[in-house]
Write a structure and sequence with these properties.
Blueprint: E1 7-11, H1 17-29, H2 38-44, E2 50-57, E3 60-69, E4 75-83, H3 92-101, E5 110-116, H4 125-137, E6 141-142, E7 161-166, E8 173-175, H5 176-190, H6 198-204, E9 210-212
Parallel strand pairs: 4-5
Antiparallel strand pairs: 1-2, 2-3, 3-4, 5-7, 6-7, 8-9
């Protein structure tokens, strides 16, 4: 498949036209259980640690990503990532994510992603596996044995998720305490939960000291 030419630009205000197009793709691509309100998005874009990024093909917005660079941490969360429905399955998603992965803002960080789990039999299991393989082809790995618990962001329960990780020099294992710090950052900075939330202990208590990336 021919590599796509995608430009990435940061959107810094909800008043920009690109933000409106980002919201359109966000609403069509993200399930209700995973969506934050539009008011919350408009607040997030004003926070310096949030990067609202759009992919442009011939100056047309064809996809977006919302990334949170954690404060005092070596990680960032790819909180949302999607491609417009009429631009899927033609290499745009790979081209866009590859550019985001190599932006200077994230070059020295681990990138984390919450991805729909394919571990349990369901009607969309094959689709969930396909999405996970999309990340794997770009060098991402799954955090082994982590039963990730995503806090709700709306009145609808979130889907079951797995956590993937990427860095330019990805190790074979991550220390449990290092992983725990990432989870605390997710809970505090993404979901406004406590760093002492008991769900973090539930996720980490049975993990080995060195957690494998698979």
């Amino acid at each position: 498949m021919q590599s796509k030419e995608i430009d990435v630009c940061r959107v810094e205000s909800a008043r920009e036209a690109a933000f409106d197009r980002l919201v359109e793709i966000y609403t069509e691509a993200i399930t209700p259980g995973g969506r934050k309100s539009l008011e919350r998005l408009a607040g997030m874009i004003l926070e310096p640690s949030y990067f609202f990024l759009v992919g442009l093909e011939s100056e047309r917005v064809v996809g977006f990503a919302i990334v949170r660079a954690f404060d005092g941490s070596d990680a960032a969360l790819l909180e949302y990532f999607a491609v417009a429905r009429d631009s899927r399955n033609c290499g745009i998603g790979s081209a866009l994510l590859r550019q985001i992965m190599h932006l200077d803002a994230f070059s020295s960080r681990f990138l984390l992603a919450e991805v729909d789990s394919d571990k349990r039999l369901s009607a969309d299991q094959a689709e969930c596996s396909r999405r996970k393989q999309f990340y794997r082809r770009l060098g991402w790995k799954e955090i082994d044995q982590l039963d990730y618990i995503m806090p709700p962001v709306s009145s609808t329960l979130p889907p079951e998720m797995d956590m993937l990780v990427y860095s330019r020099a990805l190790p074979a294992r991550i220390e449990q305490e290092h992983l725990r710090h990432w989870l605390e950052c997710c809970y505090v900075e993404i979901y406004n939960q406590s760093a002492n939330d008991p769900r973090i202990e539930t996720m980490t208590e049975s993990l080995p000291v060195q957690v494998q990336l698979i």
